[in-house]
């Protein structure tokens, strides 16, 4: 056979193999391009709502439908402590909502503590090693028995990818995906998860902030602003819970108001009450009192409950003196209008 008919290096096979590789890469590139396009759509969806449950549903749905992560969960940071609480999960027999993980506990806790993504390709080996270390430490008295968080989790999970959800380096929560296959995730998965995670962190943070504002607005209808803010931020106990405390109480009303109300037009009465409540209310707030109730011109104000304050009796006296001075100014205005108060 002549030289032209020989193929000692298998060039034809090499060319065919190269072509197959190129075709495979093109298919993967097209798939990832579609995923990036869909991720952009997801980003638009999660930033278009302030409903926290809806945001979490969109994110976990995207993990499954778009990226193929069938098992995922989102834990959010407790505003008052260094721990995470499970708010949403997908792909598990039990949702596990409400389960908690402390900072530094397991992969998820370490991600929260360090604010860095972690990818584990062989959880089984890591889990067995940690169990043996913990057993030895418990046996030697170096540590007490530790209760593990009741997260949903796969019983046979082999791979885990955990992403901290950050807003300007402030931890919002942790997004976790799992797989029963070893080494199921790679650098591209990290990249795609990071894109969704960045958008999710902002959307979740906005939704939680909106919830707090709504809750604060509702509470301010019934409590002083200081108490309402303390309740929202977790800095106050249940104000309706039975307790004992020494308090100072101030009662006040307008002299002659009943007679004035009986002989005046309703619009005039409401105008006087509006000005009176506005002035007295500002003084109550500035002295950190709590308006327990008001009926017409009558008011009852508590000091040192439900929000503790230093020197409650002194505050009450100072407020009462300031109220007398403020009412004297109001009386001058009202008498110029011909009101007999």
Distance between the termini: 125 Å
Outline the low-pLDDT stretches. 143-149
CATH superfamily of the largest domain: GAF domain
Count of the domains: 2
Q: What is the average per-residue confidence, as pLDDT, rounded to a whole number? A: 82
Number of helices: 9
What percentage of amino acids are in beta strands? Answer: 15-25%
Helix share, percent: 40-55%
Q: Report on the biggest sheet.
A: 6 strands, antiparallel
Strand order of the largest sheet: 3-2-1-6-5-4
Structural class: alpha+beta
Overall geometric form? elongated
Task: Output the CATH class name of the largest domain.
Answer: Alpha Beta
What is the architecture of the largest domain at the second tier of CATH? 2-Layer Sandwich
Structure at a glance:
With 341 residues, the chain is α+β, with helices and mostly antiparallel strands.
